[in-house]
Design goal:
By secondary structure, the chain is α+β, with helices and mostly antiparallel strands. The chain is built from eleven helices and 13 strands. The model has no long low-confidence stretch (mean pLDDT about 85).
Length: about 350
């Protein structure tokens, strides 16, 4: 009767030993893997810090020495009463990120029809079919080749950007990861009075010699160094979560300049000069209004015949600063000098051989 219990004890002890061996073998395997990984870490560490230390130090110095310019805010141009003639405004580029993590391609394809209709209504530079083709074009490519910043609309104001967020498909979810809706802010130079005094105020743009947006005509060019300001410098630095740019030298914004131009006089001068040119069918005309007591230019206008649209005149060339013969204007000055010095009087008649007696 006692033999079976003895056998049971022996079998239990064997199972315990076997279980213990399995546990030890697993511990040994895990320890070997950990030691192997630690050994590889040590090897890579030695390779980086000892064997190829010079190369990595040079690369680190080169990376941290990178710097980018910070563009300053361009100064405004004001009229005599403080009205803004040239200023900077924020505009937005609307893009679609087709690599957004949670974008729903099926919902996008279902919404293309309604989205194309809405875009054609508010932005008629493309008709409905053109918008449909433009929206569908990325989906015809393999997913890996689709753009991360597919341009939808360019340089639209803030209120329009907010309205686009409510267009079909984009209004499905406020999270851009679900719709791919992204925006890019750009700062543009704007002129509230349009083409009024265009040549005098000037315009900005990029040139072949300078990729920065600088003044290219008028006051924008003549006073560019004051209006532009001074660029800052951002240098790449190391943070706990990688590298980023840190402002080393802040930019100095441009100076706001107040001109002597009077908006009301400028508007009247351009209108009257245009009417006079239409009446006499002239090729071009120039006019200046100056305050004689101070020499301030209150208005200045230059109009040329529009070669594209006959019967219209546009600001094309500043003829006032061009070199021309004074012509008959100098005769008046010469006569005044002669009268003042007593060489002639108003009762004398001088035959000049042509035209009429002067």
């Amino acid at each position: 009767m006692k033999l079976p219990s003895l056998f049971k004890k022996k079998s239990k002890s064997k199972k315990a030993v076997t279980r213990r061996l399995h546990i030890y073998s697993r511990y040994i395997l895990i320890s070997a893997v950990i030691l192997g990984v630690a050994g590889l870490c040590v090897l890579f560490l030695l390779n980086t810090t000892v064997i190829h230390a010079d190369e990595w130090n040079e690369k680190g110095d080169r990376t941290l020495s990178d710097s980018i310019p910070i563009k300053p805010l361009r100064g405004e141009i004001l009229a005599a009463d403080g009205s803004i003639l040239a200023t900077n405004l924020n505009y937005y580029n609307v893009r679609i990120d087709f690599h957004a993590s949670r974008i729903n391609e099926l919902k996008y394809l279902e919404s293309i029809d309604s989205l194309a209709d809405t875009l054609a209504r508010y932005y008629p530079q493309r008709d409905r079919q053109a918008w449909y083709d433009y929206l569908h074009a990325p989906m015809e490519k393999p997913k890996a080749d689709r753009s991360r910043s597919y341009l939808l609309l360019k340089h639209i104001p803030f209120d329009e950007m907010q309205r686009v967020k409510k267009f079909p498909y984009f209004r499905r979810h406020p999270n851009p990861n679900r719709t791919g809706f992204t925006t890019e802010r750009v700062l543009l130079r704007r002129y509230p009075y349009g083409d009024m005094a265009r040549l005098s105020i000037g315009r900005v743009g990029e040139t072949a010699t300078n990729p920065e947006v600088r003044g290219i005509s008028g006051l924008e060019q003549a006073l560019d160094t004051m209006l532009y300001g001074e660029s800052g410098v951002a240098k790449k630095v190391m943070f706990t979560r990688g590298t980023s740019y840190w402002t080393e030298k802040p930019p100095r914004n441009g100076t706001t300049i107040r001109t002597t131009i009077d908006i009301t006089m400028q508007d009247l001068l351009e209108h009257e000069l245009g009417e006079m040119l239409l009446t006499c069918k002239g090729e071009w005309g120039s006019a200046i209004i100056m305050e004689t007591s101070t020499g301030d230019i209150k208005a200045i206008s230059n109009l040329d015949r529009d070669t594209v649209h006959p019967g219209r005149y546009i600001e094309a060339m500043n003829h006032i600063v061009q070199a021309y013969e004074p012509g008959s204007v100098i005769k008046v000055i010469s006569m005044l000098a002669a009268l003042e010095d007593g060489y002639v009087n108003l009762n004398q008649v001088y035959p000049i051989g042509h035209s009429y007696a002067y």
